Structures are given as C-alpha cells and as structure tokens.
Amino acid sequence: MDGAMLVAEEPKSAAELRASDQAVSYLSGIEPSELQRCVFPESLVMVSEDSRDLGTFKVEVEFSRRLEQPCMLLHAQSHGAADGHPCGTTVTGKGQQRPRTGSSPLLEDHRVEKRSHMVQSDGRMLIDKVTTVGEEVTKESASYAMSDLRGLVTEGSSLLLMRLLALRKEVPDRMAFISLDQSLQITPTTFSELGRKQMEIGDEVLEVFGIQKMVHSVEGSSPTWQCFFLQDGHLASRMQVGSPVTTKLLQLPSKSQKGFHFYTCFEKIPLVWEEDMQMHSNFLDRKAELKADHTSYLRQHPEIRALISDFLQFLLLRKPNDVFQFAKEYFIPFSSTHPPDQT
Asked: Residues in domain Ciliogenesis-associated TTC17-interacting protein N-terminal (predicted)?
C-alpha cells in the first residue's frame, strides 16, 4: 500500500471520550529499552509552499532522574515568522508526573502566550492554563480523575509515541487515545498509518514511513498532522493538513546522532536567553514571584522601611568619609551580642 492513506473513522458521538483498550495496552507494553532508541535530537526547517525558509523546528529528548525515579525530558521548539511577524511554539514534557506545554507566538509586537501546567495529585490530574494577550491575563482550570485519563497523550508524549511507532514500522488498528483541546476538554485522538514512500533528503532518495495524527474535535474541525520518518526514527517531514507550511529535514543526521545511546551528547549552542521565548517567560514568572514575595515581607514588617529611612537621614546629615565604619557603629546597638547598657 505504497503511498496509500488510511484515515481513522470519526467517533460516532462526543460521548466516546475514552481511549480504546488497544491504545492503553499499547502504552503499557512499551519497554524502557525501546524508549532508549527514541533518545536523540533532531533539527528541521519550516518552508512555505513556494520554498521560502520560514524558521526552524528542533526536538531534544534525554533521560534524567526526578525524585530518584528515571524519567524522560522532551523539549520541542519552533521559531520563525508568519506573515512577517515572529512566532514560535514550545512544548516541554517531564516524565509522567509533570508534563507541561506552552506556546508563545508574537504578533504585531503584542506578546500572546499560552501556558498549561498538568500535575498529578491524590488520584486526580489538575490542569491550569494561563493565556496572556498584552496586559490581559485569562486563567482556566480543569480537574479530572486519573481513571478518566487512561490513554491520555499530551503534546510532548505524542512526539515520542510517533517516534516509537515509526521505529516499529507499524500502527496497530483501533489506536484511539485521548488528549486535551484548547478549552481543556477531553477529545479523542487517533493515529493511522500512511504507508511507505520515497522522499528526497539532501542528495539521497530514501524510504520513509508515514503516520497521521488526527484530533477529533467535538466542535467540528479536526486538526490533522501527517508525519514521515526515516528508518532510524528521525522525522523527515511534518505538516498540518490545510497549512501552507511544511517542516522538512534538509540533510541526513550525523553518525553520532544515528547511534542509539542511553546518554546523548547535544551540540553546544550559545545561550542567548533573552531570545529564547520559553526561558524569557520563565524569567518573567520568577521575577514576578520574587517581587510579590518581597512586597509581602515588607508589608508584614513595616519597621524595615522606618529603620532604613532613619539610617539614610542620619548618614546624609553626618556625611562620613568612611560609610562602612559609620554603618557598623550605627547598627551595633541592634546586635543581639551588644550589651544593653551601651548605646
């Protein structure tokens, strides 16, 4: 069935919001040794229909330890321009306990950021989504019992799952998972096989294996992605059906990237955190957190402002040459080791 397309059957009703037994069984049957084969970085370019370079798409996967338990870390990031405006998307997944996804497009100099945090606690999955448009912040929350999320595939785990399916060269039938849409509602997600075809990559023509992912939205539209993979699991091309943008691999991975190692060495890239939307977002979050914490502490201890104000007034009145010595003598009476009869 060279080049043939198999489209998964649409769910019959919105009530069918549970993953199939085949999908749950498939996830539980994944061996750690197979996941090791999925640990490698890859870098592709995004091009328009007229072959214009629009940006880059990079994925990094590595093993780590979190709370003394082995886990996988995934970081995918696209960066480019749409209609002349810079835009980007970041997906970060950490093991099974705390997956997180976020996207940060920039349109007309107004920052639009969407961030979702998912945390498992007391048998439930707690989800918080924050959308920032300029100065306006909108917050949404949802909570689901873990039993309702059997077969959940997040954005990060979806990338890993397709790598694994490509390495196995087979997409089993009735693979119906669930995911969360933009409104944090459960929606069916299916994967189907597109077969094999020939694709030109660099100076070579290679056989690639195709996988289609479809998110069956209850609102009518069903976003669909078609991805083709090399024999070793590297992504060769990726496109959303109906979009004029295609993500392509321009040259074959190096030998060091093709080797399946438990530990993968990534090429060192100069860090310019101000230009990394995810890191800049983390910086702003931490800055706001510290500011709120400091403000709260000063509010609880008004004597701090009075003490500093008195010291500055006394300092400016005396204008000593040795400020450090003056400060030492000024604050000595406040020391717990200073005798109370000396001032």
From this structure: 22-244
> Is the domain of 309 the same as that of 245?
no
For 2-22, give the DSSP string: TT----PPPPSSTT--S--HH
User: Are both 153 and 237 inside the same structural domain?
Assistant: yes
Query: What is the per-residue pLDDT across 114-167, written as a single tens digit (0 to 9) for each?
Result: 777 777 888 888 888 888 776 788 888 888 988 888 888 888 788 889 999 999
Distant-in-sequence, close-in-space partners of 343: CB < 8 Å, separation ≥ 6: 333
> Considering only CA atoms, which of 23, 21, 19, 56 is closest in space to residue 41?
56
Q: Residue holding tokens 């750690």?
A: 32
Packed helices 323-331 and 303-318: angle between N→C axes, nearest 10 degrees: 130
Could you list the residue range(s) of the whole structural domain that residue 306 is in?
281-333
Q: For 284-326, how does the pLDDT look when each residue is reduced to its tens digit (9 = 90+)?
A: 888 888 888 888 888 888 888 888 888 899 899 989 999 999 9
Among residues 252, 267, 302, the one where a domain terminates is 252
Count of alpha carbons within 13 angstroms of residue 154, beta-carbon side: 23
